[in-house]
Amino acid sequence: MFINNHDGLELSTAMLINAAEHRGIEVEILDLEDNFIRLTKGDKIEYVKQATRTSADTYIAPLIMENKEVTKLVLREKGINVPAGIKVKSAAEAMAHYEEFRGKDIVVKPKSANFGIGIVIHKNLQCENCYRTAVINAFSHDTSVLIEEFVPGKEYRFLVIGDEVVGILHRVPANVVGDGVHTIEALVTEKNQDPLRGKGYVTPLEKIHLGKTEIAFLSEQTKSIETIPENGETVFLRENSNISTGGDSLDFTDEIIDDYKAIAVAAAQAVGARICGADIIIWDIQKKPDATNYSIIELNFNPALHIHNYPFVGKNRHVDDKVLDLLGF
């Protein structure tokens, strides 16, 4: 059971505070809105913002991870597999490449956005207007846009702290399961009643929304919010699997072989990060990694902790304690 007894703080920060107090560390909330705290024990002082922005990381590491193009370049140089793709500076430039992407599975995303913002996936692209809309949407979040191959498989979030992977989640896109009676809209309303779901990272999971993206994705499945799914039928509302857009989190820390954990640590080290969330697509988690079986699609400089302590399915990995260990407490 999760408890956020610090009103106004993100759950990850609240968790870190609780873990720190349990160790006898003095905690001061310096800026509630910014989730900025100070940890003190004896002569040791550490400042922490949003639970994972700490003195353990240099200034440049988050800047590298924020820039998806630079991240891919650095990882590729280290022999780590990343998706092929191009960067465009305008919608006109993107449209000039439409024919080479037509019929393929692609991902359109802002170069420097985070949390799945502005990302659109198209399978077997045939609709030029849909492609244009995705590009324009991505440009509303950044001045440069990446158009990449879609890598098949399941997406896993590896949380790297120090030199180890301390938690792995498979994130399932926002979804509902039909009962043969209620509409998709009603099922979303019911699922959102779960106390685990809230808004603004104060709970382990985020509420599911039924906005333009979800409605468009349902339309691609010849469904609408008024559709009544069959009993037991799972209906996905988005292509991307971010927890921030209503996805579910399933703990896979013990199921994935160490080879992939080593890749996640190597990726973090390549960009100089001590705390890092590596999003890796894997086709078969028991097969040894090769260029056909995995690809790192993103590194995150401010990874959420709470999703690993309070997964939708799985056990608490106590990753807040790992942060305190890294900081020398």
UniProtKB/TrEMBL annotation:
**Keywords associated with the record:** ATP-binding, Ligase, Nucleotide-binding
Q: Which PANTHER family match?
A: BETA-CITRYLGLUTAMATE SYNTHASE B-RELATED, RIBOSOMAL PROTEIN S6 MODIFICATION PROTEIN
Q: Which Gene3D superfamilies match?
A: ATP-grasp fold, A domain, ATP-grasp fold, B domain
Which InterPro entries does UniProt cross-reference here?
ATP-grasp, ATP-grasp_RimK-type, ATP_grasp_subdomain_1, GshAB_ATP-grasp
The molecule here is called: Bifunctional glutamate--cysteine ligase GshA/glutathione synthetase GshB
- Any Pfam family from its record, for instance, is ATP-grasp_6
Q: Tell me which EC number(s) this protein carries.
A: 6.3.2.2, 6.3.2.3
User: Which domain of life does this protein belong to?
Assistant: Bacteria
Example GO molecular function term?
A: glutathione synthase activity
Q: Where is the ATP-grasp domain?
A: 72-328
